[in-house]
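Reviewers asked in the last cycle whether our approach scales beyond single polypeptides. To address this, we selected a multi-component target totalling 561 residues and predicted its structure end to end. The input consisted of the following lines:
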Amino acid sequence: MKILVPVKRVIDANIRVRVKSDNTGVETANVKMAMNPFCEIAVEEALRLREAGHAEEVILVSAGPEKCQETLRAGLAMGADRGIHIAAQDNLEPLTVAKMIQAVAERESTDLVILGKQSIDDDNNQTGQMVAALMRRPLGSYISKIEKNPEGFAITREIDAGLEILQITSPAVVTTDLRLNEPRYASLPNIMKARKKPIDKLTPEDLGVDTRRRVVVLEVNEPPARQAGVLVSDAAELVDKLRNEAKVIK
Amino acid sequence: MKILVIAEHDKSALAPATQNTITAAGLVGDDVDVLVAGQDCGAVAAAVARTAGVSRVLVCDNPAYAHDITENIASLIQSIVDGYSHVMAPATTFGKALIPYTAALCDVQAVSDISEVVDGETFVRPIYAGNALATVRSTDPVKMITVRTTAFELADGESGDAEIQNVDAASATGNVSFVDQMLSSSERPELTSAKVVVSGGRGMKNGENFGMLEKLADQLGGAVGASRAAVDAGFVPNDYQVGQTGKVVAPDLYVAVGISGAIQHLAGMKDSKVIVAINNDEEAPIFQVADYGWNQDLFDAVPALQAELEK
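The resulting structure, written as structure tokens, was:
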């Protein structure tokens, strides 16, 4: 089995983002970037499937500017076998990226695509579902568990009401939720080794994908700020304020 | 403008999230149809027909829709989408899986988690865990949208009188089969629509201690939630998680107990009307968004609060 894991470069989860003064987006200049945390979980799960003997190769793909190669290197340092960089502009849309992933998955004849369920920048939560739809492959979204079996994969999904178990056939597309695993840290020797692992380069044209945006961002604004309130010193004061000032309890 | 709302339900009852979505649809245009796909879901169709602002209820009662298999409902939407300008569903795990899948089938770039309707093609949506609001315009001929339910009121569930029509089932996938589900059962209100939410974080130390929060929630008529840290630590199940990638809540009263207030958690609750924070760390960021902060050990504070409420 070959596994394809798309990875996205995003602003580090610990950074507090600032809206640009011209309201065209958020400030990314000189801001620490990292692999999207859900993509890290996807890489980790692919590596575990390979280590359990279910897969021979884990291929990473990332679409965007040159710097995406750093994100690919981070995944290679975790243990993935090789990378593919699709050189494109920033701010690609989920449907565009899904079409690129479809084209790469078909070229590479991959049996399983594992994606993060959402990226923490645009919070779209779309790409994995779109890849499954475009490829007409079964979708396992928001998974917290995946097991290979003769019929394909048994997956456990995190849904609003609890958990759901589905059986899906192979080849398939799955998206990771938080509880699937805890991603490993790359060791220094593996970081060194990753420098020598191959990264192929492709363009949207190679894959026949149009990168024009369908959803146009008109402006980006700060949300209304919430003011810190008052400190209370005991239960009586708190209950009094909730009853008589905020009037949210009886 | 002709809008198709996809109803979320559990075959017997309509999820309130559907009624929030119907309200959002009404802001786009006044011709709103609602698709109810399910098995033995007549009671749900009747509930939708009674909802204000609904023109027609389209019912597809078929075993293919006994469970919310994304592929099957997406094919059904694709089979009836002609003539609609918008397809809308709640931004719940149901809608978040379904709408992008359907959009890709129809070659549409979906718009996720809208919090405001500016006009029929322009919407506001939170990005970066709600630290920025993007105003976006969809140029696709059909807009496919998920709706942040807390940003829209519930549509009135009694004053409507929509006609009910049956629609034919579409092709069903043979590649996905339902095996089992483990649903949380609770007598308390549903987390995303509760008027009061009491949430616990890492500071709760273990799952047993959540019993205190359950008691407090019952005193206040509320639901119990949790931060990611508490879910990851195994204190409570995944469906308790409030935050950027979990559930978004906006109750009248949100009580954060032993929660430090990471931006990912704030993303899921900062639109609450009144926020109370109980934390023994006076530097905890949660105090910066709390209307009432109580810098106290939660194991002293929660019992004291319970006693005070009983007076």
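Residues 16-28 of chain B form the longest helix (13 residues). We regard this as preliminary and will revisit it once experimental data from Aim 1 are available.
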